[in-house]
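#struct-help
A.M.: can someone run this one for me? Single chain, 328 residues.
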Amino acid sequence: MDRKVVEFRLGTTDISAIRFGISPGHELVHAVRTVLRPQVVPLHWGWFRTLRDELTSEGFRLMAVIIGVDGYMPDFLTADPSGDLTPEEELEQLRRVPDERLRYDLGKMVIRSSGARQQEIRELIADPDRARTRIVAAWQTVWETLLAPVWPQMSRLLRADIAVRARRISDAGLGEMVATLHSTVTWHDDAVRVQLPHYEASIDCGGTGLLLVPSVMATRRCSVLDEPPTHPTIFYPAHGISETWHRPTSDVLEALTALLGSARARLVMELQRPLSTSECAQLTGLATSTASHHLTVLRNAGLVDSRRAGARVLHTRTPLSEALAGGH
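D.P.: on it. Structure tokens below:
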């Protein structure tokens, strides 16, 4: 397949404004697409098997109509991701989508559809107030069905990915970190380039920076936002996604205990953020010397990274232990 390239051109101000975000809306869109075509995303089969019968609801049907199975999706569904964007805030932004943007984005879906689906999208465009009300209600219903039960696991995975990327910046630099986002992402000279199957563009970020957004549900490839009023954005597959990512913390801890032993499993689970040796000991109920010994073993096995910060040594997970812990 001949690939096309989306190029984000960066000035000095843009480079200093590269940052991370989280997008519940992006996760929901790809959750809907996963349900529509589960055969192409085997890492989500375990999650898919937990879903209830509400997939036949009117809300899910409407979301499937406006999202489709692949390619472009209405940009207003993903809003402007930020590091602390909650599902509730995403939904509130959806309620405030202007008529002209709703018409514009759905207009793109008209030319990408046919038959009864195309006619239904035309009817949504004709009455944007009613369309917005229906889409908000559908978003909320589908969120509660598909992602609300596993959002804690997803949120931890997303934040763990951002933490790993941030450490990579401090270790190897911003350019090296961007190069590890995905095999289709490169940074040459003054531009970050993303290879895509069917779309190409050259965007001057214009001092707004570049937003990097990890995704749990979109495991196959990257996607982009490049049209105002959204910020230039690259969505990329998050680290550590395995077929068991949806499992609750108790299940993951049990599996890690069988592999590492109780104390070391609990240490890996607690290291969702940098912790000192004494903090590790306190959270796991271990003596400081015992915690230090287990942290050394985990570090030698490549599961913990330890760095001095002033008078303290802070311990964090490595990408390998993030994958083992499934983001928990």
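A.M.: thanks! The chain has a mean pLDDT of 89.
D.P.: also worth noting: The radius of gyration is 21 Å.
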